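Tutorial, part two.
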Amino acid sequence: MMTAQQRCLGPGDQVILTYRISDPSGVVLEESQDLLEPYTIGTGELPELVESKLLESSPGTHLCVHISAEDEAFGAHDPMQIQRLAQAELQQTSGVNFDCLQAGALIEFSLPGGELVAGYVMEINSDEVVLDFNHPLIGRDCVFEIEIVDVLDCSKEAKSPLGDNP
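Running the prediction step on this input gives:
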């Protein structure tokens, strides 16, 4: 009989994972650090190539997935995601002091529904700032390193490899 530790993961399985995203030279772009948040496989929050590798994995697996900029894993650059915000609007929506801004800074904003979005400062003018809300990894080669730390919940279809689910 196959145990949960031996079987491959499936869509809907909830796992704890750690991750690091780096560029091909090894410069870390983003990492989970000590955050061990649940992730549900198949939600589309990760690039499709990474999701497919998770589906081929089992608990305890360490993955290393190379993503090419040509894969457009983070979507295509959208010029509509570049926006100009007046100084007053920027301070109201982000709480950031306009006088302390620097090009390249990442600013988080709360939308009316509570969702957080982030934009990179592209340009600062006397009374406005130009922000890029495109995903920061669009157009970049990167390497995902993922360790599946634990499985919290298996989808109903995957709980029993023998098909004897009630």
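Residues 48-55 form the longest helix (8 residues). In part three we will examine how such features are distributed along the chain.
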